[in-house]
């Protein structure tokens, strides 16, 4: 046995070998440029500590952050035709769908859940930007409508977190048809006098903004979110004027009456719970763990 070649060399090779580092170990803040440990950001609900920049939040993480005990029942969405137009640009649309499903573990851009928020039953939908830019196609439209229908069936509020780049171009007119269809769903919920609460995240643009994103009873936006129909660059090129500072950001929209409030992510859950109780006239939740304070005994009369 050659001790140098069989023992020493492998040990030296393993010592000098490059260690594999996970790609998402660190996150660079888009606002400040600082590098932050991924686990710290995840623990902080994907808000960068220090700069308070709100990163995009996946559908599952979002549902966990809102539902009691991080538990809920998934709501099945009706199946729709895949690639009805047989669309192809640089790649086939069906291949893009497969990649998006593998990346996000979602069937399409909208995920629905039914569970409890501070003890109240609610239906919550999340439009995930990681799935093809959160674009609105037939499947996403069916999911939003299914959310309205489930809220009607269960007589609960419907909370929808929106993050989208607009209509899905690969589905053409079928995508545009989802705008009036979802609007009808909003109207049905309104006729039943059930709350529809919209939470606008970064970004919310295009045909989604032109339909169900701006039809809620209450519009809440996360800090720094881009909200609008066309993008700022397109508007500047069209009107050939410089836009105001912070144009189309959530704080600008609040100042001009487009959204009701801008709320930090850590304050969102208790606010949504309070909104649902107020809008449904539900009684405040009683804390059963609180100690019962008995009245002092009356003094005996002389």
Which structural traits does this protein have?
globular; 2-enoyl-CoA Hydratase, Chain A, domain 1; 35% helix; 9 strands; 7-stranded mixed beta sheet; 302 residues; two-stranded antiparallel ribbon; 11 helices; 2 domains; alpha/beta
Give the structure's gist in a few sentences.
The protein is an alpha/beta fold. 35% of the residues lie in helices and 15% in strands. The termini are far apart.
Give the radius of gyration.
24 Å
CATH class of the largest domain: Alpha Beta
From the spread of the alpha carbons, the general shape counts as: globular
The secondary-structure class comes to alpha/beta
CATH topology of the largest domain: 2-enoyl-CoA Hydratase, Chain A, domain 1
Distance between the termini: 106 Å
Number of helices: 11
Which residue ranges are poorly predicted, with pLDDT under 50 across at least 5 consecutive positions? 289-294
Architecture overview:
- The protein is an alpha/beta fold.
- It has eleven helices and nine strands.
- The chain has helices spanning 3-16, 38-43, 59-66, 93-104, 138-154, 172-176, 178-191, 206-209, 232-239, 250-255, 268-280; strands at 26-28, 35-37, 73-74, 110-117, 120-127, 158-164, 196-204, 218-221, 261-262.
- Helix 5 (138-154) packs parallel to helix 7 (178-191).
């Amino acid at each position: 046995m050659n001790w140098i070649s069989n023992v020493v060399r492998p040990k030296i090779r393993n010592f000098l070998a490059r260690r594999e580092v996970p790609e998402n170990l660190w996150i660079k803040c888009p606002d400040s440029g600082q590098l932050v440990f991924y686990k710290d950001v995840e623990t902080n609900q994907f808000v960068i500590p220090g700069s308070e920049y709100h990163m995009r939040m996946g559908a599952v993480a979002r549902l966990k952050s809102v539902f009691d005990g991080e538990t809920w029942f998934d709501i099945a969405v009706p199946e729709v035709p895949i690639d009805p137009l047989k669309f192809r640009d640089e790649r086939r649309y069906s291949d893009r769908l497969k990649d998006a499903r593998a990346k996000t573990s979602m069937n399409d851009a909208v995920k629905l859940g039914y569970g409890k928020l501070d003890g109240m039953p609610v239906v919550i939908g999340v439009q995930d930007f990681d799935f093809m830019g959160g674009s609105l196609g037939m499947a996403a439209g069916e999911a939003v409508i299914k959310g309205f229908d489930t809220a009607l069936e269960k007589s609960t509020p419907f909370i929808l977190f929106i993050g989208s780049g607009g209509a899905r171009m690969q589905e053409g007119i079928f995508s545009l048809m989802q705008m009036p269809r979802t609007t009808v769903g909003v109207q049905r919920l309104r006729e039943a006098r059930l709350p529809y609460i919209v939470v606008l995240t970064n970004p919310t643009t295009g045909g989604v903004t032109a339909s169900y994103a701006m039809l809620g009873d209450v519009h809440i936006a996360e800090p720094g979110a881009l909200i609008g129909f066309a993008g700022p660059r397109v508007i500047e090129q069209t009107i050939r004027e410089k836009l105001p500072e912070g144009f189309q950001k959530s704080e600008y929209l609040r100042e001009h009456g487009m959204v009701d409030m801008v709320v930090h992510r850590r304050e969102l859950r208790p606010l949504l719970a309070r909104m649902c109780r107020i809008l449904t006239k539900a009684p405040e939740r009683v804390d059963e763990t609180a100690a019962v304070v008995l009245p002092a005994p009356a003094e005996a009369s002389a």
